[in-house]
Amino acid sequence: MKTACAGWLIVLAALVVQPVMAQTCSSTLVKTTGSERFRSQKDGSIYDLQTGLLWSACSYGQTWKSGVCSGSPVAVDLTGALLAVTDLTLAGYQGWRVPNINELQSLVEWSCVGPAADLAYFPDIRNNHYLSSSARDVDGAPVIQVLDFYSGRVRDALYDTSYLLLVRDMR
Amino acid sequence: MTLDCPWWLPGVVAIALAGCGGAGTTSNEKPSVSISVSATSPLTAGATIRLTASALDVDGTISSYQWTQISGTSVELSSATIAAPTFVAPVGVSAQSLVFNVVVTDNDGATGSTSVSMSVAAGVAAPVNFWMRNVGTNAVTNWDAVDHASTYNLYMATESFASLSSLSSYATLTDGYLFPDITSAPATPYQLTGLETGTRYYFVVTAVCSAAVCGTRTESVASTEITRLIGQTFPFTQALQDTTLETCIGTDGEWTDCPADGLSGQDAQYGRTAGALAGTLSKTGSGVAAMDFTLLDEDGNAVTDRSAAHCLKDNHSGLIWELKNADDIVRTDGNRFSWYSAVATTNGGQAGLYYGSECSGDVCNTASYNNYLDGLALCGRTDWRLPTVAELRGVSDVGGLCDEDDACLYDTHAWYWSADSWAGDATQAWIVSLDGRPDTPYSKELPRQVMMVSDGGSQ
């Protein structure tokens, strides 16, 4: 009886600790992403017909297979991100870049939060900060800009490292 | 007449009647049937095969067919009740045999039947999810791995493979070419280079089963055909605006020239800004970094003097932006309005506030301001609207360059309403400053500045 109770306590603890992070989408707002814009290349990359950019479907550190991102995204700083894209071959291509902030924010699904992203094409976008290659000046020094995919908000980098989506030009 | 009839005639008629219909109900002839197969054994695994029953009923017609499979890996017939059904020869790494039986029934219910047996060679399935994309004269292709396949053959031609009865005669097609025994794909997408611009190419791929696995080396049937007109680039409808960043972050955390030693690959090294820095970007108008603006007067004609300008055409995006004008109390720089929209697809269920706390003339909200500009037909436009967050970001000067030159055409430090309601709480909409500060959802009831936009072009 005692062991059975302990077992149940573990189960309950797991339920409490497990964060519930369900995406919520407005039923009325117009979708800003979706199949009219995106084409899965079925190789871990997503082509955006609107902007002409090719994106990694999964965050850096994850592997894509059959529409599923496996493994954990790896958070990197700017040095790590710029190193990560050097000589990287993904979906048969080289020439991947760290996106600038305008490019990164172009992926936001404005009718959704938690995350503000199109999970049909980017299945494992986290409610977290994603690194850009852009910075802005704050009191004379550069501060890196990140996109908070929970809401789609551009922010000044708060942390040393952020998640990363890779981009390349297809024009 | 009856007198002229020979005595034996009625008897002959009676016999003739017995031979035809009179006694038919009791002595109906069974139909005969034979089967032909559209290919000779051994059949190719994965090939589509047609069985044809040729039935004959000497004293009537055939009314039905019924096919059954007697032995072998179960296959699906296109129909079990037609004269000539088709099926796909089963795929397996060992040879196998199939036996089918057909029963034909005539119009009197008599049946005839026969069976046919055939062998199917060992083989593998055709690759599926075959895709290709091309950029310039290069192409990348791949397909899903096929069970038991050891290598793949990629065929290319400038006419369709549909006309070929056998892939082995691919060389008879125009520009027919074989990339044999590919082993790198599908683990790594296969690259093709040097394709001719303006030429339409056709591709199919097959999987090959080695002798070690299938007994003899065998090739699958062809995949679905792909065709590509080379020289078509990926289409896209709207190039993003570049940022105005012209400097990079150095390893010491300070601003430095690009590319930064040890931190190459930052924003300013790519896109239109890189062209502007290199002096290779051609512009219709002028502007900092990659920005390319033409000032417009109140009728929409190009002018050079900011004081005569009422609008700004972005020559890259095509968008036309309103500029503030101190001669108009509604359009004076610094005026603020509450956010309002009666359109559900924009307001997300919360229209905002019609009578905001700050009014200019009788204009108190963004929708009324929008109507005011349409009413003026400002710069010849009647399609004014609130910009999206992305559009505002596209005219943001995150690099702070126009401040340095004292050449800002609009207030880059104000907070502007976007058209985007916040999905997390529709009582708020996004506000954006045009200097790169973090954008944020903001109560629709509170006043903020507006900079309306028009799509440009014909209206």
TrEMBL record, chain A:
Keywords, ordered alphabetically: Signal
Presence of keyword Glycoprotein: no
Signal peptide (residue range): 1-22
InterPro entries: Lcl_C (IPR011460)
Short name of any one Pfam family annotated for the protein: Lcl_C
Domain Lcl C-terminal, first and last residues per copy: 45-167
Protein name: DUF1566 domain-containing protein
UniProt source species: Parathalassolituus penaei
From TrEMBL, chain B:
Domain of life where this protein originates: Bacteria
Chain ranges of the Lcl C-terminal domain: 311-453
Gene3D superfamilies associated with the record: Immunoglobulins
Pfam families: K319L-like_PKD, Lcl_C
Designated name of the protein: DUF1566 domain-containing protein
